[in-house]
Design goal:
Structural class of chain B: alpha+beta
CATH architecture of the largest domain in chain A: 2-Layer Sandwich
Radius of gyration of chain B: 16 Å
Structural class of chain A: alpha+beta
Strand order of the largest sheet of chain B: 2-1-5-3-4
Shape of chain B: elongated
Shape of chain A: globular
Number of helices of chain A: 10
Order of helices and strands of chain A: EHEHEEEHHHHHHEEEEEEEEEHH
Number of strands of chain B: 5
Number of strands of chain A: 14
Strand content of chain A: 25-35%
Radius of gyration of chain A: 19 Å
CATH topology of the largest domain in chain B: Ubiquitin-like (UB roll)
Order of helices and strands of chain B: EEHEEEHHHH
CATH topology of the largest domain in chain A: Uridine Diphospho-n-acetylenolpyruvylglucosamine Reductase, domain 3
Number of domains of chain B: 2
CATH class of the largest domain in chain B: Alpha Beta
Largest sheet of chain A: 5 strands, antiparallel
Largest sheet of chain B: 5 strands, mixed
CATH superfamily of the largest domain in chain B: Beta-grasp domain
CATH class of the largest domain in chain A: Alpha Beta
Largest interface: B-C, 61 and 62 residues
Distance between the termini of chain A: 54 Å
Chains: A alpha+beta (276), B alpha+beta (159), C alpha+beta (758)
Oligomer: heterotrimer
Distance between the termini of chain B: 44 Å
Strand order of the largest sheet of chain A: 4-5-10-6-7
Amino acid sequence: MTVLDYRRPSSLSEATELLQDTDAVALAGGTDLMVAIRHRTVGPAVVVDLKSVDDIGDDIAVEEDRLVIGGRVVMSRLVSHDVVTEQFPALASAASVVGSVQIRNRATLAGNLCNASPAADTAPALLAHSATLTLASGDSGRTVPLSDFFLGPGATILNQGEVVTSVAVPIPTGPIGSGFARVTRRRGVDLASVSLVCVVEPSGRARFGFGAVGPTPLVAESTVEDLATDDGLDHLLSGTTPISDLRAGADYRSAMLRVHTRRALVAAMAQLRARS
Amino acid sequence: MSGESTIGLTVNGTRRSVTVPSSMTLLEMVRSRLGMTGSKECCSEGECGACTMIVDGEPVNSCLILAGEADGAVITTIEGIGNGGMTRLQASFLEAGAVQCGFCIPGMVVAASALLERIPDPTMTDVQEGLSGNLCRCGGYSRICAAVISSVTRGDTDD
Amino acid sequence: MTERGASTSAPRVGGFERVTGAQMFTADIAHDDLLHVALVHLDCGRAKIESIDVSAAGEVDGVVRVFTGADFPNPMPRFGPRFKDRPVIATTETKYHGDPVAAVVAVSRASATKGAAEVKVTYSELPGVYSIDQALAPASPLVVDADIRPPDDPLAATNIRQTWEWGWGDVDSTKADLVLEETYEFPMVTHFSIEPHVFVAAPEAGGVAVWSSIQHPYILQKTLADLLGLPIAKVRIHAPDPGGGFGGKGYPKYEPLVAMVALELGRPVRLVLTLEETFQAVRRTNARLHFRTGFSDEGRLLFIDAMNDFLMGAYADIAPRVISKSSYFAAGPYKVGAVRAKVRGLMSHTTPSTAFRGFGAPQIAWAIESQIDAAARALGIDAVDIRLRNLAARGEEIVPGDKPADGDWAQSVRIAAEKVGWTQTLPPGHGRGIAVGLKASATAGSSYCILRILPDGSVALVAGTSDMGQGARTILTQLVSENLGVPAEQVTLVMGDTAVVPFDYSTSASRSTVFMGSAVVDACGKAIDDLVSRAAQAHGVESGEVVFTPGEVAVAGDTHTIPEIVARIFGSVPGEIIAVGTSRGEGDAGHALGGPAAFYEFSCTASEVAVDPETGDYELVKHVTVADVGKAINRQHVEMQDEGAAVMGLGHTLMEQLLLDEQGRIRNLGALDYRIPTFKDVPKSMISVLVENGDGPGPGGAKGSGEGGLLATSPAIAAAVTQATGAVITDLPLSPERVWQAIQISKHNEERHDSEDS
């Protein structure tokens, strides 16, 4: 391992300054970064540990009409949080399949998004729930929709020195239903070959988040009525570009997309009915 | 000093202080600098669980943690479970025939101990889920589950 | 949940150390003055090494020296259990992805790794042989260097290293009502012991001391003695209990490299492989098995005509034995009138394959059992019945002139069928399968042990079996305890040091309970004889008046404990009763395999699955393994080994496969993308049954065990999937994607068939 220097700033401005160095990387949970360092896909000279930066939230809290998840919050806390399991069960499900207990005790939600894997487990759920991110550096901050955040595999709109301080999802004002599906090679811990989340509203609007079927996580919308037809399904999936790779073939991914989209929709509608 | 981290941490109840290269992981530090070789190295990327330690109350993969991150932390390793003797859980592992080559076992025992702290009366699914980050190539999974479950239902008092 | 027999088994010796983290595995042992090694290997398959510049590496803080092929004797020394083909380190060419080209030695592992990254190798990729087809293609580059292939080898211009032809009867003139033909593939999989291989060497006393996670210390000892030009007595192998072996730690790999480096530097040197390096170092021999079989209308298997190609890798290691032995038993446990098995051992620019639990038998079972199931479906015969019609009964020959069946194999099949609920109605979407596997044990070999009854009657047993999880320590302790009547807590077992422990051939082929177990019983017998005659002398009576029963010595009617007798025998000048136990299988030079097997390991697997036809995903509802073990000296140990083997079989059946790209690089190197079974992949209900008929050659009628549970996993589950979906699959693993694809093809064929009918 080529890491030379470990720093643990206590303020955002300190962190931002350290991260101005192009040889510096931000460390949150470390479950992606440490693997990358070991495989030499990154070779930082400085690792900036964000876990003591107070300006990065450490809490899951309801703020007005949104659930706000701090940038330092780890997956295991999401999995067991009442509001998450009640209002955003697809997000709880997604968080619960990120790795193992050991991984979930370190991996942060924000880190999962910043790593920007096309298969990021929590992205489909957050996209389907229209999540926004607050990005900050030094004194400045901005809020962006998650759907604008990803640029490509491993690439986001984060500027040098900018970090994610929180993730917010609007709390549904009325009943909704959600469905979650994930295709893996084994029942044990595994990366997803296809993952998707569906959120359905009483109006019939259906919003989908997809993972591992494009260079970034994707979002698409349709209606329950349209999705009853093959054309509607085709249209929904038209933005996905499943490829063949180590984990699955393109044909299989395409087929599973269709199968699981239908199933997730059915599950979401059933949940909506139960909650109405 | 650049490139080095001075760490003060509590390991198995004892305060330790050590200066190590910043690139060293918690696993490497415990094994090579603190002389505790119970925690094992296998995949070095958080997939196998052989390096599981309890850090600030939670089970984690110590191969994914830089030494510097552990400054100020409270750590329990396999050596700290049972403190020279055996806990009910460890005895259960032996009774249930859950131990074959033994290389995965320290990680399993630590992960299972942490699970029982979180869920004192786990179901089989809880155990499978809670230990799903620990691999056993000898295939002892059903007996390991049985060991964890029976350590709870044994009924006699803990040591 | 798992159903298992009553646990009246003796506790595991070494168990306390394992659950408390006190067990010292090879990488846990501290050595003064230790240097660390990191290997340099290239990101490609076969390549020509043009130059290696170690200057930058040498500048890295902490690096002591960098070794390349040029630093070793010329010609490069080679070693290997069958052919001396493996060089200590690559010289002009890398022959597989991961073939080391340099070894960086430094004061810490981190600086060695850093140094390794700074070694500059210029190389050019060469066309390589990465598959069976490529190995067989006439114009393919040759894997084996011409100068080590015998000049009179008729195959020298090919990548066929060795061929065998086994058989009996006349296949071509055997008429059959049904003839089936199919090609089966068994993929490359790797052992993935949770303990990566460790190699340590240090100069010692005019020779060398080595610590290795090795399963066969004595084979290693001989190999190093030969390579280093040392007397065997000057090569000391310390063999701590391995953290899993499964055959992958059987034969020398990097010990020669580390030993030569240590001797050159005059200091202890340690190499610990990364997990990725273990994938590059060891694997199972993959195979393409072409089986043509003939059946009568009643399902009698009349002939087998097999053409088996096994891809051995860049160096032969023990793969020739894997291939020859398993194909010799191409007919499995069945009585077949005519068999022809042609086998080719092919070289390739891939990881050298080696022994792996099952030793070729899983590959054979995949083919023959799949054929039997195909016949059962074609003839409308039940899969259990067709097997019962063909299984050899105890005493009946399977290979003419060779050791007959030594178990009631049909009994295991009936038990498996019953436990899986074979005759119960299947819910929709479910399927069941059953299959058997046969593995022949050791054909020759020897085991020695030394038993010492100490002055207070406690016992030291010195025996060279390797305990890598199968519980050898416990079994051997139990044998001493039961035969002498000494409590297990008073028996100490000394293993893993060739300077102290006498010769044991190997820990493999499920041989140790029989071979070492017999040696231990022999030693106990001799110790008892010695004790009795000395006791007689000490009491001034004839030997006949001394009666030994475990734990007690009666002299002319008066009973004494062993400690009392020992004290009486030696008086004021302390002494020990020392006995040497021997077990030798001399083999048979005239036998094709070197001798008949000491016993056969027979296993039956029955499985029920529930398939989701839209996704190909399936659940393992029930999984039964039945092992014919003769006698389980420690029931719990045998059961856990059988279950463990079943889980390992699920690995290559459901999810394991090393994937190579076109340049021979392993794409899924590491735990992230090479998936082995986890807690959540275990069948909903897993049942292991032991059949104990006391019909083995070991103590109490024991046979060996531990490999059976994975022999027939694949065909059993494949048959279950076929029953549930109609799709027949001939390649492994049976991933959800592969099952889905097979279902699509099957549906398409059905639709085409339907439309043709109309």
